[in-house]
């Protein structure tokens, strides 16, 4: 009886030593990294994180820059898995930074819009009359206490502490949470009026 031994192949080492290659011929190596991985990485980022194609390409490019910096500063001296996975690991972190930035920008935009309405700054060319009308309608729909809290905070510039005292709430955190919920209700009311035009 012949017994054949099972041969277990070791993990295949990458065919290209990207680190050494970047250190010796960075321009050509960066071009090769782009041509090899850009399309597949950007497509995966777009699909997985539901970003636009441009956002995904920007994330990929930023990830390659960080890869390059890590290699040149000797933070990365050896790849323990393939280059594509390393780039995608960086991209994952950059996507969440993008999400946080978008969330901050949206919050700022919403607060600016509320201030413009409450201060009757409709002459501000960046805020359309239609948007002001939507906001006015939404504020009426959400009613009190939300409308009152938002007017105190944005129009009269009351601090959360002042509002807490005036409206006899338990503490500042209660007022802060309520203001947050009111802004969310306002956003939903604006979104609803945008999708249900008469």
Work out the helix count.
8
Mean pLDDT: 80
The ordered string of helix (H) and strand (E) elements is HHHHHHHH
- Gross morphology is elongated
In total, how many beta strands?
0
Q: How far apart, in Å, are the first and last alpha carbons?
A: 85 Å
**Percent of residues in beta strands?**
under 5%
**C-alpha-based Rg, rounded:** 27 Å
Low-pLDDT regions:
1-13, 121-125
Structural class: mainly alpha
Number of structural units classed as domains: 2
Quaternary structure state of the chains depicted: single chain
Characterize the biggest β-sheet: none
Helical content (DSSP H or I, runs of 4+): over 70%
Please describe the structure with a list of short key phrases separated by commas or semicolons:
Arc Repressor Mutant, subunit A, 0% strand, mainly alpha, 198 residues, disordered N terminus
3D architecture notes:
The chain is mostly helical and 198 residues long. It has helices at residues 18-24, 26-49, 53-72, 83-118, 129-142, 146-155, 160-166, 172-195. Helix content is 72%, strand content 0%. The longest helix has 36 residues, at 83-118. The chain is elongated, with a radius of gyration of 27 Å. The N and C termini lie far apart (85 Å).
């Amino acid at each position: 009886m012949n017994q054949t031994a099972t041969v277990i192949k070791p993990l295949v080492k990458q065919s290209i030593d990207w680190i050494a290659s970047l250190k010796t011929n960075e321009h050509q190596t960066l071009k090769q990294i782009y041509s090899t991985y850009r399309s597949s990485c950007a497509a995966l980022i777009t699909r997985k994180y539901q970003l636009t194609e441009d956002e995904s390409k920007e994330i990929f490019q930023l990830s390659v820059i960080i890869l390059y910096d890590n290699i040149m500063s000797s933070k990365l001296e050896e790849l323990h898995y393939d280059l594509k996975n390393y780039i995608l690991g960086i991209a994952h972190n950059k996507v969440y930074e993008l999400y946080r930035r978008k969330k901050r920008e949206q919050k700022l935009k919403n607060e600016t819009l509320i201030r413009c309405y409450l201060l009757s700054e409709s002459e501000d060319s960046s805020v359309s009359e239609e948007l002001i009308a939507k906001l006015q309608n939404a504020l009426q729909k959400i009613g009190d206490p939300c409308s009152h809290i938002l007017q105190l905070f944005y129009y009269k510039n009351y601090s959360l502490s002042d509002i807490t005292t005036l409206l006899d709430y338990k503490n500042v955190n209660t007022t802060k949470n309520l203001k947050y919920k009111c802004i969310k209700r306002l956003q939903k009311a604006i979104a609803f009026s945008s999708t249900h035009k008469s």
